[in-house]
Amino acid sequence: MLTTRHGVRALGSADLPAFLELTDEDPVVNVFAVHRATTTNLEPRWLGGEMWGRFEDGDLVAACHVAANLVPVQAGPEDAIVFADRALGARRTASTIVGPQLAVEAFWDRVAPRWGQARDVRWDQRHLAIDDVPLVDPDPGVRASVRGDLETLYPACVAMYTEEVGISPEVGGGADLYRARVAQLIGRAWSFVRYDGDELVFKAEVACASPAAAQIQGVWVPPHRRGEGIATAGMAAVVHQVRARIAPTVSLYVNDWNTPARRVYEEVGFIETARFATVMF
């Protein structure tokens, strides 16, 4: 194994124990990184990129996931600047920079003059978590999605993604890949739905998971059904089911300006544990 006492290098499978020790410093915030590391064994061909590590006196002190999502891991502003300098030496492959606020800000300040204007920047996102029973009763109609739900679930996923990100996941020929991702989550029993008759009125997914935590994404209620309490009871059900069979802590992050969503999560019992930021290209 290539050793480094100081500086940055790409991590490999032999580094996995040290990487997991690093992420264990905050296993809930780092759930994405843990999920990616354990499912790929830190192999670039499975990562679709690399996991960089920064070392001091031979110890791994920070990391950075560099693929479609660029994610600082246990990185302070100084670490982020070091990773940014390495990133500037290669072509940008990331479509999103996301993670703890201070690290993302430091990274972006360094690369922005060379990487150009971002499509959207969200500097204040609340990272929330719950590790106990929800404060409201779960909706008994919420269940894990099955393959037969795909035809109604897929359009809802596209609608949610477009509303949240500002661009359709189908742009540029991405429909097949996105549909496969939705089907994959169904197959893992990481997708949840609620129907009112034949109408899909609530959905959410687990984006990634580890033994410590599961991160929720894609929470959505059709616009004409919002304000009925569907999301609150639905999220309580998701928390209950995820904690029962996937991981003991449920997390997510939400834009600071999304007051209705933040109110839902507060009513369910989520509490703020960190601040995130996202830069999208």
From TrEMBL:
Superkingdom field: Bacteria
Alphabetical keyword list: Acyltransferase, Transferase
Keyword match Transferase: yes
InterPro entries: Acyl_CoA_acyltransferase (IPR016181), Bact_Acetyltransf (IPR050832), DUF4081 (IPR025289), GNAT_dom (IPR000182), UCP21603_acetyltransf (IPR016794)
Pfam families: Acetyltransf_1, DUF4081
Coiled-coil stretches noted in the UniProt entry, renumbered to this chain: none
Transmembrane stretches, start-end: none
Location of the N-acetyltransferase domain: 144-281
Gene Ontology MF, one: acyltransferase activity, transferring groups other than amino-acyl groups
Protein's name in the database: GNAT family N-acetyltransferase
High-level lineage: Bacteria, Bacillati, Actinomycetota, Actinomycetes, Propionibacteriales
